[in-house]
Specification:
Elements: H1 6-30, H2 45-48, H3 51-56, H4 59-67, H5 70-81, H6 86-93, H7 97-114, H8 122-138, H9 141-147, E1 148-157, E2 169-170, H10 172-181, E3 190-197, E4 200-207, E5 210-220, E6 223-230
Parallel strand pairs: 1-6
Antiparallel strand pairs: 1-2, 3-4, 4-5, 5-6
Helix pairs in contact: 1-6, 5-7, 6-7, 8-9, 9-10
Length: 248
């Protein structure tokens, strides 16, 4: 594929637009109130059944990608997701092919270091989610402790628009107390509707029947090790009003 081909031109233009967008978002994040989480992606149930597909859109991977620099992220996605050649990527990001190889290696090493070391089956995920949902809806603190891993971390993204923890909450006791004492007293009946979020089972959290946020989970050894709660209304505008992504 030559540098003057239509594909190379589209890759170059699209990449530069994406880089501009990523740099703008990075500046916004510097002034953001509280933790920043990616916008949740509603996916079809079949995505959760495919471990490779599920991992490729997982909230955990999206968070890792957010930590890369804009150039690292662009190089990683072009190379790993679309198998674009180094020369073509170099033209798109304005770097030499040698520099792009180094950037790709650095980004891949960072992503691999953050990937989970065990594959959790969809059945394990659903079982942990159902146990959590029952305890969550009833305010059963002991039920939450039974399903939360001791080192669980809860991260909420409210963006200063809604009430939320300004820092991650760590440890089963603290997370259970935060859920029961905070979310459980949000001003209405608390329910969790099962959904597939970023390729894994998750919950649409409703307070008094109105969507309050989206919970995404990570599970290790059958217990919930991570909770990501996107509550900022600006990040929920497309959830539930679009057809789920199938990636098929």
């Amino acid at each position: 594929m030559t540098s003057g081909s239509p594909r190379a031109y589209l890759v170059r233009i699209t990449t530069r637009l994406a880089l501009n967008r990523l740099r703008t978002m990075r500046r916004r994040k510097e002034a953001y109130v509280g933790p920043w989480l990616p916008e949740p992606l509603l996916t079809a149930p079949d995505v959760a059944e495919d471990a490779v597909l599920a991992e490729s859109v997982s909230m955990a991977l999206m968070i890792v990608l957010e930590r890369l620099s804009p150039t690292e992220r662009a190089v990683f996605v072009l190379r790993e997701a679309f198998d674009v050649g180094y020369d073509e990527i170099a033209a798109a990001v304005g770097k030499s092919p040698a520099a792009v190889r180094q950037i790709a290696h650095r980004a891949r090493r960072h992503v691999d270091a953050c990937r989970p070391r065990e594959v959790v089956s969809p059945g394990q995920m659903r079982a942990a989610l159902e146990s959590f949902r029952r305890a969550f809806e009833t305010g059963d603190r002991q039920g939450l402790l039974d399903v939360l891993a001791p080192e669980v971390v809860f991260v909420s993204d409210a963006g200063g628009v809604k009430r939320g923890a300004l820092r991650p909450v760590a440890g089963a006791e603290r997370v259970a107390r935060f859920i029961v004492g905070g979310l459980g007293k949000a001003g209405g009946a608390l329910t969790g509707d099962p959904a597939v979020v970023n390729g894994s089972p998750g919950l649409f959290v409703r307070v008094g029947g109105e969507l309050d946020g989206v919970l995404a989970f990570s599970v290790v050894d059958g217990r919930i090790a991570g909770l990501c709660y996107v509550r900022n209304p600006e990040k929920l505008t497309r959830v539930g009003v679009r057809d789920p992504v199938t990636l098929r």
